[in-house]
Model the fold of this input.
Amino acid sequence: MTDDEVTGRVADDGLAAPDDGIAVPDDEGARGLRALTGETFSASDAVGGVRGVLESVAPGLLFVVVYLAAGQRLVPALVAASAAALVAVVVRLVQRTPVTQALSGVVGVGVGVVWAWRTGDASDYFAYGLWVNAAYLVGTLATVLVGWPLVGLVMGLFASDGPLSGGSWRAAVAWRDDRVLRRAYTLATLPWVAMFAVRLAVQLPLYLRDDVAWLGTAKLAMGVPLTALVLWISWQVVRPTRRRDREPAATP
Done:
């Protein structure tokens, strides 16, 4: 599992795709789930900074605004959303900054655009995000039920003696031998389960009613802001465990 896979797509997003606010690691700062390993927490850095937020929000916002402004015509809205995602990639290429987050955004927007264009239903622009959230809900809940909570896996991978820091894979799962750590990581994963469940509970009925305006609004409101809140809650839960987690490494 690579750094990008762990921190970038945990939701519609890293667990979530970028338009739901989980950012892929960029050129600096602790982004996405990797922010949980930091001594301090920055909500801005965790969701990709100002640029990351704009890249996540712009396509969906433009889709809804243009769709309504154009008299509920689908094509102009699809063009606007596609253009916003492509511009983000072009700007990063011109500035020679990492394009991972912008490219993943293009993929998500592209699937939504093609889906809506083929069905002719504007609400299908958001269908991909619903499926992604459903998949992440099942996957994240499964990690809790089998005793391998997602947050624990992330903390282990990015630990000072973990594989992504030049250490071993055994060290990455050493926390499972500690009941206190295992319980803390389980509790820190539950907010993610709740987030995906709440997104589906709110957005799925709107999708079934073809309420594009409210669906787009709900998606934006439950994207970056909700993700930042869940990251902060998880960080608060695992914060007291860091000293305990470092104790074995400090032993001669």
Summary: The longest strand covers residues 11-12. Residues 50 and 146 are 37 Å apart (CA to CA).
